[in-house]
Amino acid sequence: MTAITQESEGDGHARYTYRLRVSSGARTALEAEWSRCRWLWNECCARSKKAHRDGEKCGPARLDKMLTQARTAMSWLREGSSVPQQQLIRDFAKSRAKALKDIKARLPMRQRAGMPRYKKKHQDAPSLNYTRRGFRLKNGRLHLAGGIAVTVVWSRDLPKPPSSVRVYRDSTGAWYASFVVPAVTGALPETGAVIGIDWGVKETATTTSDEHDLPHPQHGKNAAQRLAHYQRMMSRRRPPKGKAASKGYRTAQAQAAKLHKKVARQRQDAARKWAKKVVRDHDALAVEDFRPKFLAKSTMARKAADAAIGATKAALVEMARKHGRTAHLVHPAHTTMDCAQCGARTKHALPLSERTYTCTACGVVSPRDKNSARVMLVRAGLQPG
Predict the structure, then answer these.
(1) pLDDT tens digit string along 110-126?
(2) Per-residue pLDDT tens for 248-261?
């Protein structure tokens, strides 16, 4: 299966991900490279803890010096390329600095970035980062520092030369290359239309245009029975603590991971196709800046997770940026209480069971979510289409 995704980096760059065909020799070399990087990460964790106990600093310069000394003393470490090892040092230092910054700012524990943790051999999947000097593309193949060459499944061309690449293995055992390239804007013809978008659980997205509503796809619900079957297989074959897993357990685990991956791809595909349709047909978007995290503690948690509101919203905003459309993020406060016709606000919040909005001031009656979608347009300063 060929897979490609595009994600925004938020700094004028985009990430394009492609499937890799990895030979047995290249797989062995990549896993050996990851073993060195994993050891180096764990050594950084140990040095960080020691520096904390001794009241010393543990910045990138000290870690770089540690890497130089380690490569000088260990031939096993020198066998690998220095590029992913140096990049790992930078990633560790950035992660540690973010955690220390949150501690200094006295953020609540639930909002803090945790300190870097040890990576375990059988739990953490390989992930190697290469900067521009550590890789090259030649004849459709990706050549990595250290003499590793893999075949890229080019489902489409990169818009510009990449500045870096991350090679990683997912939970199903498949290998991918994720390239970072400068973001490219492909302007679409103007339509003169605008649209308001309200997020929900019964329908993933309700808009001011009936033909652009996004019904709940229920990909997770459709796969729930098969997933439960594989999870029961894993439960029956779960090995005792300290014992190696059986072949049956590993097979069930792989099947469950494959099904999770399929559902994630289905959600992503549905979100991107819907986002492309909305962006193609409208010049400006008024999007509810909805944060679905609070739904995780509600009775709608499973259905909300299956709707993938956060991923769909991110795909819509990224698609609008890619094609030069304007996306207005509207604060969601009181959007279900305001009237899109006259602007009056009800005295009490509407219960979820009440699906029709009736304005007590002007008497307009409309579906609750449709009214909220029109409120998005009003708050964004756009005239309803």
Answers:
(1) 888 889 999 998 889 99
(2) 999 999 999 999 99
pLDDT in tens, 252-288: 999 999 999 999 999 999 999 999 999 999 999 999 9
pTM of the model: 0.81
Both structure tokens of 208: 């001011």
Q: What is the pLDDT of residues 327-379, one digit of tens each?
A: 999 888 888 888 887 877 887 777 777 778 878 778 788 888 888 888 889 88
Structure tokens at 94: 């950035």
Reduced 3-state DSSP string for the chain: CCCEEEEECCCCEEEEEEEEECCHHHHHHHHHHHHHHHHHHHHHHHHHHHHHHHCCCCCHHHHHHHHHHHHHHCHHHHCCCHHHHHHHHHHHHHHHHHHHHHHHCCCCHHHCCCCCCCCCCCCCCCEEEEEHHHEEEECCEEEECCCEEEEECCCCCCCCCCCEEEEEECCCCCEEEEEEEECCCCCCCCCCCEEEEEECCCEEEEECCHHHCEECCCHHHHHHHHHHHHHHHHHHCCCCCCCCCCHHHHHHHHHHHHHHHHHHHHHHHHHHHHHHHHHHHCCEEEEECCCHHHHHHCCCHHHHHHHCHHHHHHHHHHHHHHCCCEEEEECCCCCCCECCCCCCECCCCCCCCCCEEECCCCCCEEEHHHHHHHHHHHHCCCCCC
Check if the beta carbon of residue 182 is closer than 8 Å to that of residue 12: yes
- 180-199 pLDDT, tens digit each: 999 888 888 888 899 999 98
Q: Which residues contact 325 (CB under 8 A, 6 or more apart)?
A: 188, 279, 282, 283, 284, 285, 319
Higher pLDDT among residues 357 and 3, named by residue: 357
